[in-house]
Amino acid sequence: LGVGTPYAGTTYKPSFTSNSDAADRAVCEYKEKNADDSKYSTTLPTAYGEYVVRVTIPETAEFAKTIVTADYRIIYLAAPQTAYVIEGQTGKNNYFISDVVLKAPTGYTISAVYGGPYTASIPYKDGITSVYLKRTSDNALTTAIPIMNAPRVDKNAPSISAKTGTITPGAVMYASDFILNVSDPNLRSLKINGEAVDLKNYKDGYTLTLNPGYGSQTYKIMAEDEAGNVTTIEFTLKAEWLKDKVIIPDVVLPLEGNE
């Protein structure tokens, strides 16, 4: 009597030899190795572990009833050299700027949970530290395969927003002090009209205060994060007095040709 060393998840059948004319009516039963004999069942185990198989050949006119047992182990399938492929839109500095999937190699399906469900690929999410494979030819299962060098994902471009109100690209706004908030967890650079802003003390956000003086100023704000996502906005600020053309006493004001 022998079973071999089957892989977890597979279907297998004990092999035995007997001269009995009832060999084709033999009953195979299984239990965990250290379980009581009352735990024998005809249900075929497929989970990793150590087991005992018991084969019972019924009595016939010529042969006595025969019972034989054998110990065996169910083991995990070894993972292939390349257990998964990371797919997604790549950005800068080894970032992905899109949703990322972990794709099973040819001949396998993949899951984030032992036992499945197993599919051709699974979405990568923060917190997934390992994957499991099933070989399609025989349903053999691997144990946990650690994810090495987990993908870094940043799908969102930096946020540029006004402290009050909204900013419309190309808009003309009247303000003496216009406050912008720029934020991104991976902010790399910030430029105002091509001039870099020092981000040495940047933490959770950066505040810009823009002042057109007594005249008009067009601003182009560009923020880029480590992944290469870019947000650009351009607008014009004009001094508040230009809105109603109310002259400010004792101040030299810039006037246009028709004013």
Fold and architecture overview:
- By secondary structure, this protein is mostly beta strands.
- Helix content is 2%, strand content 36%.
- The protein has one helix spanning 241-244; strands at residues 27-32, 49-57, 66-74, 85-87, 95-96, 101-103, 108-111, 121-123, 130-135, 145-146, 152-153, 159-162, 172-174, 178-183, 187-192, 195-196, 206-210, 216-225, 230-238.
- The longest helix has 4 residues, at 241-244.
- The protein is rod-shaped.
- The mean pLDDT is 93.
Quick tags:
1 helix; 19 strands; 5-stranded mixed beta sheet; 259 residues; mainly beta
Quick structural summary:
By secondary structure, the protein is an all-beta fold. It is built from one helix and 19 strands. The protein is rod-shaped and about 125 Å long.
Major sheet: arrangement of strands: 13-19-18-15-16
Strand percentage lies at: 35-45%
Overall geometry comes to: rod-shaped
Output the number of helix runs.
1
Spans of 5+ residues with little confidence (pLDDT < 50)? none
Helix content: under 10%
Mean pLDDT: 93
Structural class of the helix and strand makeup? mainly beta
DSSP strand count:
19
- SSE string, helices as H and strands as E: EEEEEEEEEEEEEEEEEEEH
Q: Give the distance, in angstroms, between the N- and C-terminal Cα atoms.
A: 106 Å
Largest sheet: 5 strands, mixed
Rg, rounded, reads 36 Å
